[in-house]
């Protein structure tokens, strides 16, 4: 009897323990609560195979493989082999990462692993792949993994990913550049020098080598034709003593602009650092000065070099034309009121050695692929200007709202993106037409070629072949997305429209098969595939379907207007398990335009900015994200008006507890929160982070993040004040939070990272001191090792997210058992 009693007690004890374990599993992030998203989608050329990275909060080293013919099934899972992966045409995959590589036959799932790998990749045009080991051995294999060729002593490697490898190897005390295919190795250039740099030009026609001759200080620039092996290196102008050389390709290798630079690094540990009032290159304090530029134009056909005098203009750039260069002085009259210098642009005629000006105050320059035309954006008039190199004529393109021009390869048209459809400009007729299927939609061109010929001043070549592959992304006013393909004279939809957010899209080479990663606020990311000729989408992979809580999320889009009649939207998320008979607290999060993110999936996690709407609604809060726009009243007053109008639009929501609303913002949202806190009585508490508290001080600040003054950010940047402090001091004073800090009437939590160079941490300290001196309820959190966004996985991010939740619960749910908050209030009450 006693034994039965003991067994009975043990049985129930075991049930109780299991119950506790099961209950605990519901509250921790175990396997049942392992959240992930999907990204880096890749698709095979024929559209059958696909691969995607599985991204957890702190790691993304898992690669999932799929067969279009087997929907819903992961055919293989690779771990720590997702650094680089590519499909070959023979149903094979090559993947690499963490010093390993893997070849896999996808049809039979046969595989072979390789160790000690530095780099691996495809030669898709030959259906082969290569392996470059850490000991310098290079191996070329066919699609079955059989070794076709090996080479030892490889020091540098470039691949076109299609047919050829180009390698530098040490051989018999010499450096040799070779071209490698599966079948043979072709020597291209041999020298006794060492190669310190190896670069392939965008066209793939030339490899540029920087040679260091033993025992000599001068370095040599050598051009090697990748096909013929023709070498250009004995020209005396290419043998120089320099710190750096920038080589820009012109007309697919017909010519090259060479910029030999000598630089002086900034002096460290000097007694005094002198800043001059006429210095227009303050970035040199960080990066040093370019003491000299020596420019040369190399004509490949003639193997002739023309020196370019830099006496009149310090900077030359390619015009993608063998007869002309662009010339300008970027520092002339630059007062930092814009982020980048506005260029007074000149054309230099190479044969005539003459200059003529074409544009003033150009902020963006786009070149045609044939070098015949140049487009420049005039920042003052907000117009595009077209220059014809052959005729010398300039044309003003008189239409507002045009963005990101792209030249057509047929040399007749320029395509412009806009928020009201795609526009095509006929160069000869000087006329516009738009496409009916794109009107009323915000469009962006997702195909075509674009590369910068000058990184610092945004000068680029941008073109598209409208007769081959021309794809558009279009978003309508209801946040629905579609993809369109140009077909003869009009665009037709190949994907969409869908209310889901399309995170990524990939097509087969012939555009007949489309893959998308799609998500929504209540739908974790999943992979879909369809035939672009009209079949329905098929779910290939349902993603994190275990996140069942996501399917219960409720959202409303709230339409409203500010006091000036500007139409705006806000996203309202309901508490999980919402009961209309109850009242709930609400947290308002602000930045600028947020409504476009209404279909973005989010899972509960520690956020680097301390805000996660998914966590908050699971903890029983309404979360509201209203849009904010700025106007002539100034940044702060505009934000205040928009937020007040948004709150008014929620007047019919009886379940929101109007006495329990909090306001939260980070960075620009932190500034907006600071200002609204000084002018509003509609919030019970605030959390503000890494935002300016004194915009007059910030206006006259120097950023050690961008290494330039912050004037531009206020006049023509994010703050959109549109005038300088000296032109309208009242505008800056009236929108300055610190001037009204004594008017804050609800508790504030402030936080910042003390290594933040975006918005320096002492702006938060200043606002804290203003609140403290005004006897306001405030606590400030300073994280000594953190920057503008707190580091993932750090103790600081865990601490912040815990404290912000405790703050909201303390003031909006009356959960008062929080010592670090009560400590502030107890001291206040004791005085």
Automatic annotation (TrEMBL):
GO molecular function, one term: serine-type peptidase activity
Annotated Peptidase S9 prolyl oligopeptidase catalytic domain residues: 647-813
Domain of life: Bacteria
SUPFAM superfamilies registered for this protein in UniProt: alpha/beta-Hydrolases, DPP6 N-terminal domain-like
GO biological process terms on file: proteolysis
Pfam families referenced in this protein's UniProt entry, alphabetically: Peptidase_S9
InterPro entries linked to this entry: AB_hydrolase_fold, Peptidase_S9_cat, Serine_Prot_S9B/DPPIV
Protein name: Peptidase S9 prolyl oligopeptidase catalytic domain-containing protein
């Amino acid at each position: 009897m006693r034994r039965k009693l003991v067994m009975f007690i043990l049985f129930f004890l075991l049930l109780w323990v299991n119950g506790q374990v099961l209950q605990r599993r519901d509250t921790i992030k175990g396997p049942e609560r392992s959240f992930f998203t999907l990204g880096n989608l890749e698709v095979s050329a024929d559209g059958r195979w696909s691969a995607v990275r599985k991204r957890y909060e702190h790691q993304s080293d898992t690669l999932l493989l799929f067969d279009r013919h087997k929907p819903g099934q992961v055919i293989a899972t690779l771990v720590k082999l997702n650094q680089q992966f590519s499909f070959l045409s023979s149903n094979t995959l090559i993947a690499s990462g963490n010093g390993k590589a893997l070849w896999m036959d996808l049809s039979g799932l046969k595989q072979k692993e390789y160790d000690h790998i530095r780099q691996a990749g495809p030669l898709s045009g030959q259906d082969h792949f290569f392996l470059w080991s850490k000991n310098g051995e290079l191996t070329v294999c066919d699609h079955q993994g059989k070794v076709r060729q090996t080479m030892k002593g490889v020091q540098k490697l470039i691949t076109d990913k299609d047919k050829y490898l180009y390698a530098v190897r040490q051989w018999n005390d010499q450096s040799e550049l070779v071209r490698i295919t599966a079948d043979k190795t072709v020597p291209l250039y041999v020298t006794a020098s060492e190669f310190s740099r190896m670069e392939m030009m965008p066209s793939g026609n030339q490899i540029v080598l920087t040679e260091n001759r033993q025992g000599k200080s001068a370095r040599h620039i050598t051009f090697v034709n990748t096909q013929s092996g023709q070498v250009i290196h004995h020209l005396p102008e290419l043998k120089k003593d320099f710190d750096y050389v920038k080589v820009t390709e012109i007309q697919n290798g017909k010519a090259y602009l060479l910029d030999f630079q000598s630089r002086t690094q900034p002096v460290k540990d000097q007694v005094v650092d002198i800043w001059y009032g006429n210095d227009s290159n303050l970035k040199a304090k960080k990066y040093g000065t370019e003491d000299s530029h020596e420019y040369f134009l190399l004509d490949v056909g003639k193997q002739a070099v023309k020196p370019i005098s830099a006496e009149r203009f310090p900077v030359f750039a390619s015009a993608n034309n063998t007869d002309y260069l662009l010339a300008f002085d970027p520092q002339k009259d630059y007062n930092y009121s814009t982020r980048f210098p506005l260029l007074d642009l000149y054309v230099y005629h190479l044969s005539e050695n003459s200059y003529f000006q074409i544009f003033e105050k150009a902020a963006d320059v786009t070149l045609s692929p044939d070098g015949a035309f140049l487009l420049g954006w005039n920042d003052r008039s907000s117009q595009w200007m077209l220059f014809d190199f052959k005729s010398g004529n300039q044309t003003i393109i008189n239409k507002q709202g045009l963005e990101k021009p792209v030249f057509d390869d047929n040399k007749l048209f320029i395509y412009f993106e806009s928020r009201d459809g795609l526009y095509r400009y006929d160069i000869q007729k000087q006329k516009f037409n738009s496409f009916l299927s794109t009107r009323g939609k915000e469009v962006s061109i997702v195909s075509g070629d674009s590369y910068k010929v000058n990184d610092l001043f945004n000068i680029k070549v941008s073109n598209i072949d409208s007769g081959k592959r021309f794809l558009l992304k279009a978003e309508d006013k209801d946040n629905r997305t579609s993809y369109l393909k140009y077909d003869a004279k009009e665009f037709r939809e190949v994907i969409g429209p869908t209310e889901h957010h399309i995170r990524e899209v990939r097509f087969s080479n012939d555009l007949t098969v489309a893959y998308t990663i799609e998500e929504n606020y209540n739908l974790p990311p999943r992979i879909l595939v369809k035939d672009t000729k009209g079949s329905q989408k098929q779910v290939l992979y349902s993603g994190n379907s275990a996140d069942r809580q996501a399917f219960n999320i409720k959202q409303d889009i709230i339409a409203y207007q500010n006091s000036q009649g500007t139409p705006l939207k806000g996203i309202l998320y309901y508490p999980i398990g919402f009961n209309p008979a109850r009242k709930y607290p609400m947290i308002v999060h602000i930045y600028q335009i947020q409504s476009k993110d209404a279909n973005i999936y989010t899972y509960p996690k520690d956020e680097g900015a301390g805000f996660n709407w998914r966590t908050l609604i699971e903890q029983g809060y309404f979360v509201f994200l209203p849009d904010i726009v700025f106007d002539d009243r100034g940044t702060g007053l505009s934000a205040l008006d928009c937020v007040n109008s948004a709150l008014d639009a929620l007047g019919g929501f009886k379940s929101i507890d109007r006495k329990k609303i909090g306001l939260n913002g980070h960075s620009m949202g932190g500034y907006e929160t600071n200002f609204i806190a000084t002018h509003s009585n509609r919030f019970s508490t605030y959390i503000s982070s890494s935002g300016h508290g004194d915009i007059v001080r910030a206006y006259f600040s120097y950023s050690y993040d961008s290494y330039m003054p912050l004037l531009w950010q206020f006049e023509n940047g994010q703050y959109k004040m549109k005038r300088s402090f000296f032109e309208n001091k009242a505008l800056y004073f009236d929108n300055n939070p610190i001037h009204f800090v004594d008017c804050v009437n609800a508790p504030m939590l402030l936080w910042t990272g003390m290594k933040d160079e975006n918005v320096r941490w002492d702006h938060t300290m200043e606002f804290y001191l203003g609140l403290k001196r005004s006897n306001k309820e405030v606590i400030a959190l300073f994280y000594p090792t953190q920057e503008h966004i707190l580091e993932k996985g750090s103790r600081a991010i865990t601490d912040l997210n815990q404290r912000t939740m405790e703050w909201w619960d303390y003031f909006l749910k009356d959960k008062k058992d929080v010592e670090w908050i009560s400590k502030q209030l107890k001291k206040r009450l004791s005085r």
